[in-house]
Each structure stands twice: as structure tokens, then as C-alpha cells.
Amino acid sequence: MASKPRKRLSSTQTSTIPSSSEKQNINNNSSYSDPSIAPPKWGLIFKLSLFSIPPYLYLLFYHYPIEQDIRRSILINASMSLVGFFVTVKLIPVASRYVLKRNLFGFDINKKGTPMGDIKVPESLGIVVGIVFLVVAILFQYFNFTEDSNWLVEYNAALACICFMMLLGFVDDVLDVPWRVKLLLPSIAALPLLMAYAGHTTIVIPKPLVPHIGVEVLDLGWMYKLYMGLLAVFCTNSINIHAGLNGLEVGQTVVIASAILIHNIMQIGASSDPEYKLAHAFSIYLAQPLLATSLALLSYNWYPSSVFVGDTYTYFAGMTMAVIGILGHFSETLLIFFLPQVLNFLFSLPQLSGYVPCPRHRLPRFDPETGLLTGTKDGTLVNLSLRFLGRKSEKALCIYLLGFQAIACSLCFLLRHFLAGWYK
Compositional bias (Polar residues) at which positions (predicted)? Predict the structure, then answer.
């Protein structure tokens, strides 16, 4: 990410302990010395809401005859998510002051050489999003789950995975863990879900392959749980490495979460299987607060960014979407939603494997005179896009990449429509 460089006091720097009177003066003047961040970009959030919310509401209320109990639970969850959005907007400036006091900040590399490149930008603000998300998800249990609910154990296991991953992400932001170790963190965080998972371990064989395999449904057993763990590792790290632009990490999460919501509503409306409907409703209960809190963070992280999200957010968002796909039983669809991340991972493999030298920051070159970015030879989708499209501003490039993300999600819906009945 463009937020990695940090400045902290070194062990050779000396510090004096202030007297009680000096401490009092510091406390009295703290409100004046604390740097403030730019206000949230409400116009951006309004425009994004116009694109994502109306189709979702149309499918929920008019297009499909969704049961009243499921619709009621979705609306309660949506209302709590809306409250979470405003709470997140309110808490981010407060948390920014605290992280700056602890020297947890970064300089925007893509603005180096300009006045904005010298501004200390508070980092790891994904911790606010994660905490608000968890509070909303935990409180929602009061309205939807009973003590004997079959979903309660897996729901809490999912929250444990997300909380564990968020903690490990914050540890990474503070300690700057080597990237090879980062690959193992999601597999550790996914353990609560893997141990608590009691669902099926079967896959439906595509119809064209049934004559060759001989069965329509194949039980993978322990290999299915291995696949779940690998999916969690991929989703978490793929969000983390497809980064480096203001708004890109949060923006891709917003696009994918919106697609997940629409997909789940479509599956609930088209199915007659109660268990299948509950699985997709379960996904909605996690996707709505993810979308709401991510929109709140995007209002500060969009270009020019007032805060950096840190690995805390990318790990949190990736693990949340992995859990949503696993327990909603649509991991194949989720991987198509992640098509840009899959391509970015494939382009990055030579450097990640050590075959090609991998620099610390695989970012494009910034020209302070023109304000444009130029692609480098590093194997990332960001650099490849610049080499294909030509020099772009950071904001324009981010819009192009998020547009590609939206196209990938739309392609997934088209594939499901045209292959329905033939593929599965």
C-alpha cells in the first residue's frame, strides 16, 4: 500500500519527562495541537449509494416474493448497519488523533514531492471499521438467533475468525510482519470456522463432467475444509496486495460486497429450499454491515485520502468476504467476483515466489510536476493498467480499476444466467 512508510521515535532519541505543570499545559492545549482530518466526502457516498442500493431494494421488495421472516431480519440488520455507518463516520476522526499520538502514520508515496506528500496521514483506521462491524454483528444475534439455532455456532465461529484476522492485521501494521509470514496469518485466523463447520463437504459436479467422473455429487471430506482454508488465505491476501491507490482497497470491497448482496437476494428469491435460503440470508447478515462500515471508511479514504486503512482493514475485509462465501455456499461465484484480484495474484506470482526481485513497494512512479502516475515493470494490475492505458492521475486510475471490478461482477451474473441448467 501507499501508506507503509511510518515514523516512530528510535531508541537513540532521548525524551524528557514533563513536570506536572507541563502535563497540564499539554492537556489544555491538546485540542489545539491535534491535527484534524478532512471531513467525509458525502457526495461520493451519495453517488455510490444510488448505484448499489436501488437495485438491491427492488429485488428485496418487488421482484422476488421473499418470506416475511427473512425480509424482516434483513431489514433489522440493514437498520443496524445504517447506525454502524454513522458511528464509524463519527469515530474515525477520534481514532485518527489517537494513532497520530502513537506515531502510527504514513506519508503518501504517490504524492511525494508535493505539499500533500509531506502530510502525516493516520494509519490503521481499519480497526474502527472492524470494531463497529463486530458490535453490529454481535448485537444482531439478539433479534435473529435463538439458543438452539443451528446457525448460531457457525455464526459465532465466523465472527471469531473475523476478529482474529483483524487482530493479526493490526499486529502487522504495528510490527510490520514479513510478507512470507503474512501468508500464514489467514490460515491461523480461519481455524475457529474450520473447527466449528458442520455443513456439507460435497460439491456438485458440472453436468458436462458427470459422464467422465460418474457421479453428480462428490464428497470431498477433509479436502473441502482444506479448500475453505485456502480460500480464506487467498481472499485475505488478494485484497492486501491489490492496493497502493487512495480508495482502492476499500473501493473494491464496496463493489464486491454490493455484488454479494444482490447475488444472495437473487438466490433467496429463486430457491424453494429453506436451508438454502437461510445460508444466503446468513451471508446478507454479514455483508450489509461490511458494506455500511466500508462506505464510512471510503468517505475518508477516497482521493485525496485523509486516512490510511492499513493491513487491519484489508485482512478484515478479505476474511469477512471469505467467510460469507464459505458459509453461503457460493465460493465459485465469489472467485468470479474476485476476478481482478485473481489476475493481480497471477501477475504477482513471479515476484511473490522470488523468481523475480520484489521491491518493498510495487507502486507506479509519480511525477510531481504533472501529478500523473507511470507504470513500472512490477507485476501488479495497477502497473499493468498504466502500461496499457498510459499515464493517469491516481484518482482516474482508481476509477478505472473499480470499473473493471464492477464489470467482473456483472460478468459473473451474466455467466450464471446463461449457464444455468447447462453447467449445473
Answer: 22-34
